[in-house]
Amino acid sequence: MSRFFGKTGRSLVGALVLGAAAFLNAAPARAAGEAIVLPETRFSFEGLFGTYDRGSLQRGFQVYKEVCAACHAMRQLSYRNLLEIGLSEEQVRNIAAQFQVVDGPNDVGEMFERPARLSDRFRRPFPNENAARAANNGAYPPDLSVMTKARANGADYVHALLTGYSDPPEGFTLMEGMNYNRYFPGNQIAMPNVLNPDQVEYADGTAATVEQMARDVTTFLAWAAEPEAEQRRRMGVRIILFLIVLGGLTYAVKRKVWADVKGH
Ligand code: HEC
């Protein structure tokens, strides 16, 4: 290798290899004693050519709207963002109109409620944090806008969390109002198991198994946190293709230029 890269080249390659090894090894840090191993889930949006499956996104939004939105806000999203997951403007207008949002003040200085419009942010389920805590055994249901980026292996984690409820193992004492979950740090979570078979009736006829709903809502949350990921990946692939072509051309030119010199 040294013949090709020289001394600085060698240490550079060394650093790259070390960096890659560290990156591949980086397991999520856990505060609790024993490590929780997340099952890996294969999502359509992973990998170099990954895209968000539009059907899954729309089903995932349905799960968020009908289940999660009772407790979790997504304040980074406006209703008009739903146009990006392939819903028509009329569909999105109808969805928005199902929610009442606070507006105002009006002519006489009072706040009032009106149906949401495309430009409104997703309605939050509770007026403030205290109200949210009071309704959830003292725990605060966090905003889900960037949840998949806020946790290590976010998509795998959210999917695991939603499918990780069970009765506690023998000898495990649950605190009052808490639920056992295999993948939540500490294994006690204030959020109840919210996904049961056929919890929602999918508009496209897909069978609403717990696994399917967890996968779809995770896909929707991953898109919400990183809507530009597809575009960025497409650009990355183009840049790599460009570099390969450029590399080939440079090599050809180099050979041509040096051909005469070697001849002598
Ligand atoms: C009945 C209210 C309620 C519903 C419905 C609900 N959650 Fe939660 N969720 C909570 C509460 C409360 C917490 C905070 C839990 C804690 O800290 O113990 C939470 C926490 C979370 C977390 C963060 C876990 C962490 O690592 O901190 C995620 C992710 C989550 N919920 C996803 C969802 C999704 C997705 C749905 C819909 C399928 C949903 N929740 C539906 C109440 C709810």
What does it look like?
The model is unreliable at 1-8 and 26-32 (pLDDT under 50). The longest helix is centred in the last third of the chain and has 35 residues, at 229-263. The chain has a domain at 50-77 and 121-236: Cytochrome c-like domain (Cytochrome Bc1 Complex, Chain D, domain 2). By secondary structure, the protein is mostly helical. It starts with a helix and ends with a helix. The radius of gyration is 25 Å and the shape is extended. It has eight helices and four strands; from the N terminus they run H-H-H-E-E-H-H-H-E-E-H-H. A two-stranded antiparallel sheet has the order 1-2. A two-stranded antiparallel ribbon has the order 3-4. A hairpin with an 8-residue loop joins strand 1 and strand 2. Heme C (HEC) binds next to helix 6. Residues 63, 67-68, 70-72, 136, 139, 141-142, 147, 151, 158, 161-162, 189-192, 194-195, 217 line the site of heme C.
